[in-house]
Amino acid sequence: MTQQRADHRPYFFLSYAHTPGYGGGSDPDMWVERLFQDLCGHVMAMTNLPAGSPAGFMDREIRSGEGWSERLGNVLANCRVFVPLFSPRYFASEMCGKEWYAFEQRAIHHRARSNQPAEAIVPALWVPVQPSQLPGPAERLQFNHRDFGDRYVSDGLYGLIKLTLFAQDYEQAVYHLAKRIVHVADTVQIGSGRPLDFRLVPSAFGAPGSGAGAPRPMRISIAAPTRHDLPEGRNPEYYGDNPQEWNPYHPAAARPLAYVAEELVRSLNYQAVVTSFDEEPGQREGKQPPSTPEILLVDRWALQDEDLRRRLAAFDRENRPWVTMVVPWCREDHQSRAAEAELTEKLEQTMPVKMRQGRAFCRVAAKGVPSMEAFGQILPQVVEVAAQQYLRHATVYPPAGGRHSERTRLMGPMGNTRFIPDMHDPATDAEDV
């Protein structure tokens, strides 16, 4: 009988916003470290982790001289549960948003491979936060904080830990938080992932300074056949009853790519809408101003349909830089690999503008993304380009009353008023076609 290998990965990663020092006083984050030590003690008591194994991780454990980016990337690729300490400062922190996104991408890939629920984020209230301050990824979490006590909800862990009057409430909240961490770790069991480069990881809370607010709109459209209209001889295992069910990374992925892309886009604080390329033909005709940034996922096999190929070519000639193209192309699909040269040439002839448009990583995305992991790494970058180009090309409305302020305002498709930052980038301008 083979013995199951012991799992010595950290049970949790404590993600928190550093509090600036003031007045030469004591370390303002010492209370977070006390919480961390208390949680580790409970986790060790509740599990069979051997001595020396880490119960948890917080960034104070990074030694001087150690590469912080590499260490954070490795721990986030291996820890079992992500514990964000909610506070207004937390959601204003770009680094906290990066940590959240790095862990959430692992969970999304786990769900894509297994088609099983995999929510392994256990939030904790450090300071009470108003619902209006929560970005989309935090707002969507299904979590009942009242399970940890009413005083915890009204004062947060910081209030309980600072006031001796609430010492018992603090002990109760931390004990139940540790129980939740262990339960989620043991039931969800997210496998280890590939460490991400923190220099490239986006924030789950949006661009720095954007605030929480409503998630920004983003369209994901699919140009792919269905199993009912495939080119002759094409394997139907990769397709469903509509284009949104296309699964180019089958069998490694158990879920259609459109819904994996939707989760990845939502994890970047966008409101994603998934459609097929043909679903709104009226918006594809003529030179129309943008209504939303868009990611176009193209299956090269779709180009075997001459009618769809004609419409894609017409769309390409309109030169819409707020639509970025990604071409998933699995190297494990032997049929696709055999036809790669022919279908690549056909795509280059059909959509030459999109093939050479945008920054270098956009052109890489258009040439073929070989795996689900590569897709997850490149999608945030093309999403950001689409969002920037949308802001540059969308209709701008002057303020009411005819007077011009220092900044004009952009009316989004949902009627939201948003300020436009200066997105002018000469390097990007030179790459626009």
Automatic annotation (TrEMBL):
<dbReference type="InterPro" id="IPR000157">
    <property type="entry name" value="TIR_dom"/>
</dbReference>
<protein>
    <submittedName>
        <fullName>FxsC protein</fullName>
    </submittedName>
</protein>
<dbReference type="InterPro" id="IPR047603">
    <property type="entry name" value="FxsC_N"/>
</dbReference>
<dbReference type="InterPro" id="IPR035897">
    <property type="entry name" value="Toll_tir_struct_dom_sf"/>
</dbReference>
<dbReference type="Pfam" id="PF13676">
    <property type="entry name" value="TIR_2"/>
</dbReference>
<dbReference type="InterPro" id="IPR026367">
    <property type="entry name" value="FxsC_C"/>
</dbReference>
<feature type="domain" description="TIR">
    <location>
        <begin position="8"/>
        <end position="174"/>
    </location>
</feature>
